[in-house]
Specification:
Blueprint: H1 2-6, E1 14-20, H2 23-42, E2 47-50, H3 57-61, H4 71-75, E3 80-85, H5 94-97, H6 99-107, H7 119-123
Parallel strand pairs: 1-2, 1-3
Length: 127
């Protein structure tokens, strides 16, 4: 976050918001309200863009696709991407709703840093 805010000297950092489905919409709305308040109280600016990609209304209007084919090209210019939550089994099967997430992870080289060790072993010597 610090590096993101340091770009503010040149321009307001650009954040893409992808609320997705279910609770992701609520989390995104609350986050946007929090960021608006923080900007007003701490004198900094962010440029936010919210995309309506989801597994219900967007997918219904776009032949079952939960995000546009050119989603990666759309997101690439942003400094950060806020992903709410994807997946709504009642609307679409997981292989459709999670496909945009997989494309994002591959395109932006995002990997999970999960450990295969039990928590106690992973923390040994650190606490």
């Amino acid at each position: 976050m610090r590096r993101l805010l340091q770009t503010a000297a040149a321009r307001a950092p650009r954040i893409a918001f992808y609320p997705g489905d279910g609770i992701g919409v609520d989390v995104t709305d609350a986050t946007l309200r929090l960021l608006e308040h923080a900007q007003s109280q701490h004198n900094f600016a962010l440029e936010t863009t919210v995309f309506d990609w989801n597994s219900s209304s967007y997918a219904d209007a776009n032949s079952g696709r939960c995000a546009p084919d050119d989603m990666i090209d759309i997101l690439r210019p942003f400094d950060a991407i806020f992903l709410g939550a994807v997946g709504w089994p009642a609307a679409r099967p997981d292989h459709e709703t999670l496909e945009p997430l997989i494309r994002m992870r591959q395109a932006f080289q995002q990997v999970s840093r999960a450990t295969a060790l039990p928590p106690a072993a992973a923390l040994r010597g650190r606490v």
